[in-house]
Amino acid sequence: MNKQQKVAIITGASQGIGAGLVRAFRDRNYRVVANSRSIKPSNDPDVITVAGDIADRAVAERIMVEALSRFGRVDTLVNNAGIFTAKPFTTYTTQDYANNIAVNLTGFFHITQLAVAEMEKQRSGHVVSITSSLVDHAIDGVPSVLASMTKGGLNAATKSMAIEYAKRGVRVNAVSPGVIKTPLHAPETHDVLASLHPVGHMGEIADIVDAVLFLDEARFVTGEILHVDGGQSAGH
């Protein structure tokens, strides 16, 4: 086991931004532990896949066991797993509420708590969470109360944890995207979604990946909510 090679944990890693992050960290010679409900085994010996719901504490514990037993350390955690349920507030069901809380907040809590405990031991580490610019700038016609409530919670937790762990070698940041061109958005919706951004187009997966990589290397940055949203949070 080469304990000197850095290790990243990435949730929501089977497609879209998560899959892009796995490739990017491997390109930088990180070993990766990749999680999602539907993730398949990897042929790369430096990528461990752990299938399961990140909202389940046992899944988070399994991710950490695999990371430490196979790779011996954890340097970066990217909380990318998340769901977005766009409905008028009064039509949300209790199941909608439970699902958003489970993935966006409970999943974050379990894996981040376990990862930070290990980072604290080694006096170094970085947590970065993917949130949403809708937290800062709600858009008429895009109902997003559950996203704003849960992702806003991640923004608040990011700042609180950044201060709590600043003197212990652990940095905590977030990337706050606009609408990103991923498999979640059908091509016929792209024109409408592009219009939500002052720059007039959707973001690309690479935009979010680049932001995460920047924060991972920015040793003097912690407690930052980095907006990658085509100007959406600045105004319209």
UniProtKB/TrEMBL annotation:
One of its GO terms (molecular function) is oxidoreductase activity. Keywords: Oxidoreductase. Pfam families: adh_short_C2 (PF13561). CDD domains: SDR_c. InterPro entries: NAD(P)-bd_dom_sf, SDR_fam. PANTHER family: OXIDOREDUCTASE, SHORT-CHAIN DEHYDROGENASE/REDUCTASE FAMILY (AFU_ORTHOLOGUE AFUA_5G02870) (PTHR43639), SHORT-CHAIN DEHYDROGENASE_REDUCTASE FAMILY PROTEIN (PTHR43639:SF1). Belongs to the short-chain dehydrogenases/reductases (SDR) family. This is SDR family oxidoreductase.
